[in-house]
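The instructor's notes for this session suggest beginning with a concrete chain rather than abstract definitions. Hand out the sequence below and ask the class to guess, before any prediction is shown, which regions might be ordered.
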Amino acid sequence: MALPLLAPPTDNLYKFIAITSIVLFIIGLIGPEIAHRELRLNLYQVEGLLKSAETMSPEEREKESAVFRTLRIEARKIHEQNNVELQLYTSYRLFGNILCCVSAVGTGVGFWLWYHRVQKYLDAALKTSATAPPREA
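After discussion, reveal the predicted structure:
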């Protein structure tokens, strides 16, 4: 007895391979871009912190030296985090490109197998049943 949760969402393994490959292709395209967007947001945050620290006059820096130091420390932490995230983004991008290539091949193979091993015969059976003379009862 098969569990309904473990059943593929289609009646055909080849279609399942093709559709899953399409989903993986989309993930390979979108995933790295989401990571890149988050990285850019962090970079803008660092730039904002550094600009706010640079725009302070020397008197304000002396008055608020603790705030100024906190801004610099926070900017340095975010900058270090961005360096790590940039390396991760490079890995995400490479993984995304590989995933797109593999899933494109999987999509082509899945649809080709589905057509040549299943759909062609279903189409032929449908054509013969459509052109056959109707049975009389």
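Then share the key points. Residues 23-104 form one domain. Helices lie at 13-54, 58-63, 65-131.
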